[in-house]
C-alpha cells in the first residue's frame, strides 16, 4: 500500500476520523488522476457536453467528495469515458471516438456522447450504487460535508429522470439532457445556489492554501481550480444542445416496426396501386433505418441560395451550401402519440448537421385520402400528389399549400420528389425545385426579366439497402 504523505494525512483529518484516513486519501488520489484522464480525453476529443463533465469531476476533486464516499468514487469510475490506460472504456465511448475519426459533424458527436453517457448512467443505477450512497449518507446524517455531497448527488443523478426513455428512443437524447439541466437550474435557485457557493468556497481555499502533496501526474489543488474555471467558462457552449433539446421535444418516439413506417400512409393514399411499387422502394418507406444514405446538393441561382440561407437562419431548416457531393445523410422517422409521423432528413456538412424536418399525415381532401407534408414551425402544409411511376418508383409533387389553414396555389413553382430504383439494392431519390410557367407572359418575366433558370436547385440521395431491420 502506498505510503501517505504527512500533508495528505492533515488534509484527510479535516473530513474523516483517523481510522478512515488511508481509504479517504487513496480515493482522493484516484479522483485527482480521474480529472487528469478526463481532461486528456476531452483535449483530444472536444465536445460541448464534455465541459459539464470536466466541471463535475474537477468540482468533486476540489470538494473531496470522492474521498468521502466509496460509492461516489465507484460512480465516478463508471461515468469515466476512459480506462486507466486512457482507452475508451465502453462500446459507446468507442463509437464517440469513431465519430471523431470519421470526421462526423459536431451535432452527431454530441449525440454519440449522450448515448455513451446515458448508458453509463443507467449502469450506475442498475449496479445499485445510488442505494449504496443513500446508506452512506444516512450513516453521516447531520454532517455538513455529507449534506453537500448529497446535494451534489441529487443535482447530478437525481435530476436524470428521462435517460432510460431517451436510450429507448421514446424522446430525443438532447431533450432528456435539456430537461435535466432545467431541473438543476431550478433546484439551485430553490437552495440559494448552495452547491455553487460550496464549490466557490473550496476553490478559494485551495487557491490560497495550495493543498496537500500529490503524486506525479496528478493535478494539485490549484491545478484543479484552473480546470474548474476553464470548464465553467466552456460550459456556455452547451446552449446548442439545450436549444436542440427544446426544438425536439415534440419530435416523437423512434423505433422499429410497422408503427414507424410510411407504408400504411401510402397504402391509404395509393390503394391497390401500392402493389405496383418496386420492392426496394417499398422497403425504403417501410424501414428507413435499414438504408445508408449520401446526398448531393446543387443550387443553380443566388435566389435559391439566399432562400435556403434565410430558412436555415430563421427556423433551423435548410442547407445553403451551393455544391455538395455525396455527403453522408440520414433519414429518420418518429411517431407521436396521436399517430402522426415526424420525418427528419439530416445532412452532414463539415461541422454542421443540416436538417429538414416535417410531419406526414393523411387527410381527406376533395373526397379522397391525400398525403400532406406539414412544416409546423412555418405553419405550412403541402398537399402532395402521390403516384406510382412506370418503373415502380414513387413520385410526390406539391400541388397546393395551406398557410395557416388557408389554401393557396403554388404558382409557377414545381417541387417534386421521385424515388426510383437505381441499381440492385440501391435507390435514387431526386428532389427538384423548378419554375414551370403556364403562360407566355409569366415565362417572359421569369426568363428574360429576372433571368431565372428553369431549375433553381436539386438534391439527389443515393440510398443503399444494408439489410432488414424492421421488427
Question: How would you sum up this structure, described in words?
Answer:
Helices cover 47% and strands 23% of the residues. It is α+β, with helices and mostly antiparallel strands. The protein has a ten-stranded antiparallel barrel, surrounded by four helices. It is elongated.
Blueprint (SSEs and pairs):
Blueprint: H1 6-13, H2 21-44, H3 48-63, H4 65-68, H5 70-78, H6 91-101, H7 106-126, H8 129-139, H9 144-158, H10 163-167, H11 173-190, H12 194-209, H13 221-234, H14 239-247, H15 263-270, H16 279-286, E1 291-299, H17 302-315, E2 323-335, E3 341-349, E4 352-365, E5 368-375, E6 380-388, E7 394-403, E8 406-408, E9 413-423, E10 426-435, H18 440-449, E11 455-465
Antiparallel strand pairs: 1-2, 1-11, 2-3, 3-4, 4-5, 5-6, 6-7, 7-8, 7-9, 9-10, 10-11
Helix pairs in contact: 1-2, 2-3, 2-5, 3-13, 5-8, 6-7, 11-14, 12-13
Helix content: 40-55%
Low-confidence stretches: 311-317
Strand content: 15-25%
Query: Total helix count?
Result: 18
Note the main attributes of this structure.
single chain; 471 residues; alpha+beta; Lipocalin; 2 domains; ten-stranded antiparallel barrel; 11 strands; elongated
Give the structure's gist in a few sentences.
This protein has 471 residues and is an alpha+beta fold. The chain has 18 helices and 11 strands.
